[in-house]
Batch of 2 targets.
Target 1
Amino acid sequence: MRGEATRREILSQPDVWASCLAAPPAQDEALKEEIRRARFDRLLVTGCGSSYYLALLIAGYLRTRAAVPVDAHPAGEIWLHPDLHVDRTRYLAICVSRSGRTSEVLHAREILTAKSQARTVALTCTPNGALAQVCDHVLSAEMAQEESVVMTRSFTTMFLQLARAFSDAGSLASLPARARTLLTAHGRRMEALGSQAKFARVIFLASGSLYGFAREAALKVEEMSLTPATAYHVLEFRHGPIAVVEPGTLAVCWLTDAGREQERRVAEETRWLGAEVVVIGGDGPQDIPLSGEGEALAAMPLIHLLALGRALARSRDPDRPRTIGHVVEI
Ligand code: F1P
């Protein structure tokens, strides 16, 4: 059946997250020691595709926790334009790659070690892959490895695996149960929403630390359903792109803790222009309730179901999209 593996992987997220959080933290210890010794001046997170959008989220998460500045850049940008992105300060570089084989990530790691003698971390689902073999530390989310081409549980579980290395696992422990509750309460509705033929346009809006979710959500719709989707910073959306909103637009808007009043206004304006709008962290009848932006990861399986619904309604197979493969090697 079309999308069978993708659906299974989406729905398995609460269980896979729970097993990630329950795994012995041994592999974190050397990294935690490295962080404690803090012999680096900057943190840099890099990856490609979903793994780059995960890098954006990780950078947002670490900015409020790390004692040093944090950047995120696409690995291809580091490879092609190292002088724009890498200086000679000492980096701890987190290289994100499900497969551990993506060419740009391997090249970026090489540049980072050659140019700034960076210490490197492989955040991956393939602990015996090429990337893990050349990095100083490995954070493995092997339990989330996927059969499907499109990344769903690997994305969310790699985030958790990284987050638990930088914070106490207690702060993350409620996420599996929260995701389970949200899936039960809103899963069918979000998949049905995605499947409605009337939506010619899909738009994702998020700001601050949550912006990576909007980028990843747009990529999920594109990869699974082979239809375009766009992502914007919430307030940026008002500076031109909002002009395209009309009936037949589906929009999803995340609320952050700091920006919620302004973000809510943009969501309202978008709704007023004729779009159907789901607010993640909102309290309206269409919305996905959260207790704060710290729970936003728990809503991601619902976005995956929305993209799956759109793909299946268009007779696409998200397990094997016709245009892309598991890895890009160039
Ligand atoms: C990254 C990636 C995926 C994308 C596609 C090609 O792979 O760009 O995000 O869905 O399958 O590869 P990786 O470096 O995380 O293995």
Target 2
Amino acid sequence: MENFDLHNHSHASDGLLSPGNLVRLAVRNRCDALALTDHDTIDGIEEATATAQTEGLRFIAGVEISVSWAANENTRTKTIHVVGLGIDTQSTTLLTGLETVSNGRLQRAKAISEDFSRLGIQGLFEEAYALAQNKTMISRTHFARALVQRGHVPNINKAFERYLTEGKPGYQPHRWAALDDAIRWIRAAGGVAVLAHPGRYALDHATMDQLLSEFKSHGGEAIEVVTGSHNPREYREYATWAEKFGFLASRGADYHGDASNQWEPGTLPPLPTSLTPVWTALK
Ligand code: AMP
Ligand code: MN
Ligand code: MN
Ligand code: MN
């Protein structure tokens, strides 16, 4: 199998490496192609494209869009991530859409910080803001790093576990894009819509079936099977879902440059050979 890694972050969102250094890491790790898929922004694509050209690496422009999805009006809304691969970064439909999604991140960050003030942890907004390279893209990851830096938690995963996930005292609900809109923006930009790390959403079988049906009916074409967010049992589970729905399969580390995830670009196991890789659909 060709070593394609199609899900990675740079400091244009919540990764630690610059887009150029991410590309150089992928080259060192012998990737045949790399996608940069920052959260709700394409700000890193230009630099990554230029470095990939210099380094002779095939580069795929991508984005990871935050979506709020509920199975019906009576169930709680979940945050779902949809990756767009092979996007035209000049598409006004996509750019306008991404702007509506990222608007509100700054306000959410201030609300998160107020929650922490009530817990006796002051000034966390300023610290998280200072850690964000792209000031409009401040994320929970930056709060997690600030909490580690202050010694409130030993590592990033603990910061999420104790404070930053639903039901915990530093969690602020937020309204992201609608599923159909996110897929529409990606397709308008000529891209392929990929459901990111389905194993992370903790959905029961029937709800996963519904999510995948809706994703497909709106024009979604692929799901991540081998990702840094899945364990080997989940590789098999989502291979089965991909076969059931006729989805193409994607592979990506979801690399952020920190210890939250052990996988570097290009180091995950290959896709199961029974699946059709999503890169067959990328020009
Ligand atoms: P946001 O888009 O600001 O809500 O931040 C979401 C990001 O937080 C994800 O893309 C991950 O990088 C990170 N994240 C979410 N949950 C966890 C977790 N349990 N452990 C480590 N990182 C996480
Ligand atoms: Mn992230
Ligand atoms: Mn994600
Ligand atoms: Mn990601």
